[in-house]
Specification:
Strand content: under 5%
Helix content: over 70%
Strand order of the largest sheet: 1-2-4-3
Radius of gyration: 28 Å
Number of strands: 4
Shape: globular
């Protein structure tokens, strides 16, 4: 019996009930030569406690929706009298028709009042600035932050659940059935489901943690504890704001690390180990954790102190100086990270002489790439996931290949992957992304300049003073919806760059090898074979496998010209 026939017979079976044990399911779906694979499919289709919770929430939302419809139909105009909490929503719905009716008139007035000279534009800007400043005094900051936070959480949870539903589909999409076996597809789905479960639980925990911090004013509480400790043990008062901010930063980082540690341990030693990826020992895990914390404290603390000093010295135009400082810090980190920081975690060795080194050096020479060093890194020390990348500025470029990639792909396929990476270099994708990041950073600091001195914001969150670091923390809560939009835009740009880099590699003559390497890596890394389109559009920085293969194989998308 063929694999596809077995798959069709499996899908024809009724969905497994919760009461059935895994052994019963294995027997039910294992009455053919592919019984082990069919049993795995049955386990993927079987729902657990988390899925029951999700289904319960879905049903609850549907019930609430219909109850609301019934209440509106029964009470109509008396709804605010019976349920006073519905008054704002009732007023909004009541005024909505009038609002739409007035839109043409408002647009005409706006067109008529559009400034026709520099003087009018300046006057309009001054009036708008005064109005905006007045509005800042009236914003219910804490309420807005809670609403923004829960809306963002609900949106991303909805996307996670959509993707989870796709992972439970045991039939392979037609587009990948010809090159991905049913077993590889089911293994990837099982891996995706385990990661999905962890993400949903972790995000739910983190959301409640954020809500508790906001509702119970835990940020000012912790700020005051740090201040009291400094006063008691060091004799440092409120005038030492920068020192206090560094101490707060260290304490907050430690607490955040401890709260996320159970999830990190479960991810590494349960999920990754279960699916054959984790190679870390507990000693290596905690060694990496300690190194990360030390780097965060020893690099982050002086950088934070410098930022706070610059903001304190440059007045209302601080956003320009802070933005320039952050740009310089980012460039410095890009330079020192691969040379000084990453070797603290991995061993980089020159790629041995041989066919692969010769082929990569020939490709670099062909493209005029200033290759200074060619490394192989011991990625297998921690995981069996694979990768390759290019880094460096100006005439000092380096290429790094993971040892796992060398084990998984042929020489021609690795060269095709390097061709893709060199496509990013040739088309200046790194500089484009850095430029986009700088624009985003400027927007953040410029927006923060309007909130940094807003006493109402600090009071709303329980603060009786206005330290810069705490103000920026509160501002980040407010900025969250815009940050999500900018992250989405960044992912759109990144996916476009990936298509262009694929096209570049194909034009070098590596189209077939690049396609086969992408398939191998997707299978070896158990990547998502069946992504939900909304989930991938929002989260993915790389296009899904099928889209990349279609682009590579379509002569109109990526014609071979060289």
């Amino acid at each position: 019996m063929s694999e596809e026939t077995s798959e069709q017979q499996t899908l024809a079976q009724p969905k497994a009930s919760k009461a059935e044990s895994s052994q019963t399911l294995a027997k039910k779906y294992g009455d053919d030569p592919n019984s082990a694979i069919d049993a795995q499919a049955a386990l993927i289709m079987q729902k657990g406690f988390l899925d029951d919770v999700i289904d319960g929430i879905r049903l609850g939302l549907v019930v609430i929706f219909f109850i609301c419809l019934i209440l509106v139909a029964v009470f109509a105009g008396n709804l605010p009298t019976v349920f006073p909490a519905s008054q704002p929503l009732f007023d909004f719905a009541k005024n909505l028709p009038a609002l739409f009716a007035s839109l043409p008139e408002c647009l005409a007035a706006a067109k008529e009042g559009f400034p026709k000279s520099i003087e009018e534009a300046s006057l309009l800007a001054a009036i708008s600035s005064a109005w905006f400043g007045e509005m800042l005094h009236r914003i219910p900051y804490k309420t807005c932050v809670l609403v923004f936070s829960w809306l963002t959480f609900a949106w991303e949870a909805m996307l996670d659940i959509r993707q989870r539903d796709r992972l439970r589909e045991v039939r392979r999409p037609v587009a990948i059935a010809q090159f991905v076996s049913r077993q590889a597809y089911l293994e990837a789905s099982a891996y995706g489901l385990d990661k999905s479960s962890l993400v949903l639980v972790k995000n739910f925990f983190m959301q409640f943690q954020t809500t508790a911090i906001i509702v119970y004013d835990l940020t000012p509480w912790m700020w005051n504890i740090v201040g009291d400790a400094m006063q008691t043990h060091l004799g440092l008062g409120a005038e030492y704001e920068i020192t206090r901010s560094i101490a707060y930063f260290v304490a907050a980082t430690l607490i955040s690390t401890m709260l996320s540690l159970p999830f990190d341990l479960y991810s590494t030693f349960v999920v990754e180990k279960k699916h054959g990826f984790n190679k870390q020992t507990a000693g290596l895990f905690f060694s990496d954790l300690a190194k990360n914390l030390m780097l965060t404290f020893f690099l982050g603390s002086p950088i934070l102190a410098l930022f706070l000093w610059v903001i304190g010295k440059t007045g209302s135009q601080f956003y320009l100086y802070a933005w320039a400082l952050l740009a310089a810090v980012q460039l410095l980190i890009i330079v020192i990270y691969p040379t000084f920081i990453q070797p603290m975690f991995n061993k980089f060795s020159p790629l041995p002489e041989g066919e692969l080194r010769t082929a990569i050096e020939a490709l670099a020479s062909r493209l005029g790439f200033p290759l200074k060093k060619l490394y192989v890194v011991d990625g297998s020390k921690r995981s069996s996931h694979s990768n390759a990348y290019v880094f460096g500025f100006f005439k000092s470029k380096r290429i790094v290949v993971f040892d796992t990639l060398i084990e998984q792909c042929t020489t021609e396929e690795i060269v095709a992957i390097i061709g893709h990476e060199l496509g990013h270099w040739k088309k200046n994708h790194v500089l484009r992304m850095l430029s986009a990041v700088q624009v985003q950073t400027f927007v953040i600091f410029f927006a923060f300049s309007h909130f940094i001195g807003e006493e109402a914001m600090y009071r709303s969150f329980g603060m009786d003073t206005m330290p810069v670091l705490i103000g920026f923390t509160f501002f980040q809560y407010l900025y969250q919806p815009l940050d999500s939009l900018l992250t989405f835009a960044s992912n759109v740009m990144s996916r476009k760059h990936e298509f262009e880099a694929d096209e570049f590699s194909k034009k070098l003559g590596y189209g077939k090898e690049l396609a086969s390497s992408l398939i191998k890596l997707q299978i070896e890394n158990k990547g998502n074979m069946n992504p939900d389109h909304m989930y991938s559009a929002y989260h993915y920085s790389h296009p899904p496998l099928v889209e990349r293969l279609n682009a590579i194989n379509d002569p109109d998308v990526a014609p071979k010209t060289e």
